[in-house]
Amino acid sequence: MKILHTVEFYHPSRGGAQELVKRISELLVRRGHEVTVATTRLPERRETVINGVRIAEFGISGNSARGFRGDTLDYFKLLRSGGFDVMMNYAAQQWATDLVLPIVDQIPYRKVLSPCGFSGLFWPEYGPYFRMLPERLRLYDHLIFHSRTYRDIGLAQQHGLSHLSVIPNGAAYEEFGTPDKTFRERYGIPKDRPLLLTVGSHTFLKGHELCMRALRKAQIGPATLVVIGNTLPNLSCLPQCSSLARNVRWTTLGRKQVLLVDPPREDVVAAYHAADLFLFGSNIECSPIVLFEAMASRTPFISTACGNAGEIAAWSGSGTIIPTRHTSGGLVTGKTTDMARAIERMLADPSKRERQAEAGYQAWRRDFTWETIAEQYERVYLNQQKAHSSDPRQGGAN
Q1: Is the domain of 116 the same as that of 150?
Q2: How many CB atoms lie under 10 A from the CB of residue 257?
Q3: pLDDT tens across 258-278, in order?
Q4: Do 273 and 165 fall within a single domain?
Q5: pLDDT at residue 378, as a whole number
Q6: Phi then psi dihedrals of residue 89, to 5 deg
Q7: Do 105 and 240 belong to one domain?
Q8: Burial class of residue 83 (count of CB atoms within 10 Å of its CB; 0-12, 13-18, 19+)
Q9: What is residue 44's DSSP assignment?
Q10: pLDDT digits (tens, 9 = 90+) for 283-337
């Protein structure tokens, strides 16, 4: 098949959407398909073919609610005349999908959309967008969701849409299959000290503050929290995190430490394998990949009920969801005390940690490797190609 994936950002940019589209695209190339990714042009990207995936770059930004910037004509040309068998738009509320919506019925091949959560569903500025969206969704040939319970599939079902699949997120066996046990030694963390880990960009929304305050409050003795996250231009909570990290150290007389790092990917994976617990205090998610990565590293997790974290905990048997408040704007928040108490209980019960670690790992190996998930995307695409070729309106066989 000749496949087009569209996504706002792609490698070397980092994030959940980037990770999913990169993994699925590269695995489909290995399975013999031709894959093109249409995405934002980045100055740090040096190649237009990465691991067999062709990159079509565009100097476009924005979305339907904020408006678009850049020359969109070349993107429309690719969409209309690229000769693809199937297109998958990944994530709504960004230019690579929102520019497709008005012309989706004009595209002469099969169209698939994976909305990735509808983060702005409750934001007033997106009101017109979401009033328009259901009729646009009907024009897609298939919809892919990551959860059976989250707001995006809820919107689709509310409007009677049933041409959909649920395909979860995952983690890569090629990354997590062979544990690297050297992280503690390389970062100066004693082997007998509890190591807690959280991973997420410094965007003010990933719950770093909640995790640090919970570390400070938890009665667990000396411990280290590793906060791994990259910074984004003009948007970073790193200064605030640095200040709070110093406060944690001072107020605990050095018994508790926060390590703020943005290491190479291999060190991120090693940190997962070294951690005793994974913490996630995020305020908004769709289906957090970091929880699947915790499963893959045999690391039990404690999380707010962000995105479908509760569903992931049920699927895996390896997670604890703390009491979570849902705001009118669609965000979620957790309390420091609740996360601190959850940390205390888990660290005090090694046998429970071991049971959860093994349950999560086995669930990941069975259902949540990217290799397994890529096969599910391929099956959707092949079914769409078959439906297209048998549609008499397309000149195929009846």
Answers
A1: yes
A2: 18
A3: 999 999 999 999 999 999 999
A4: no
A5: 99
A6: -85, 125
A7: no
A8: exposed
A9: T
A10: 999 999 999 999 999 999 999 999 999 999 999 999 999 999 999 999 999 999 9
Q: At 77, give phi and psi (nearest 5°).
A: -65, -45
Count the domains in the chain. Answer: 2
Integer angstrom CA distances of residue 381 from 23, 60, 225: 16, 27, 42
Of 71, 6, 11, 63, residue with least CA distance to 39: 6
State the first-to-last Cα distance of the chain, in angstroms, to the nearest integer. 21
Distance of CA 121 to the CA centre of its chain: 18
Read off the pLDDT of residues 74-110 as tens digits, 9 standing for 90 and up: 999 999 999 999 999 999 999 999 999 999 999 999 9
Question: Does one domain contain both 314 and 297?
Answer: yes
Buried-exposed string 13-28: b where 16+ CB fall within 10 A, e elsewhere: bbbbbbbbbbbbbbbb
Q: Are residues 267 and 162 in the same domain?
A: no
230 & 247 share domain? yes
- Vertex 392, ends 389 and 397: CA angle to 5°? 55
Under the banding of pLDDT at 50, 70 and 90, the label for residue 235 is confident
DSSP calls for 147-209: -SSSHHHHHHHHTT---EEE----B-HHHHSS----HHHHTT--TTS-EEEEE--SSS-S-HH
Domain-located, residue 397:
no
Q: Is residue 396 part of a domain?
A: no
Task: With respect to residue 53, please indicate whether it lies within any of the assigned structural domains.
Answer: yes
Q: Look at residue 194 and tell me whether its pLDDT is greater than 50.
A: yes
| Residues 70 and 177 occupy one common structural domain | no
The answer to whether 198 touches 227, Cβ cutoff 8 Å, is yes
Structural domain span for residue 180:
173-367
Task: Tell me if 70 sits within 8 A of 39, measured CB to CB.
Answer: no
Query: Both 130 and 250 in a single domain?
Result: no
In the predicted model, is pLDDT for residue 356 greater than 50? yes
- Residue 395, Ramachandran bin (φ over 0: left; ψ between -120 and 50: alpha; else beta): left
- For residue 86, the domain's CATH number is 3.40.50.2000
- Record the pTM: 0.94
Considering the domain boundaries, does residue 330 fall inside one? yes
**In this predicted structure, what is the pLDDT of residue 388?**
76
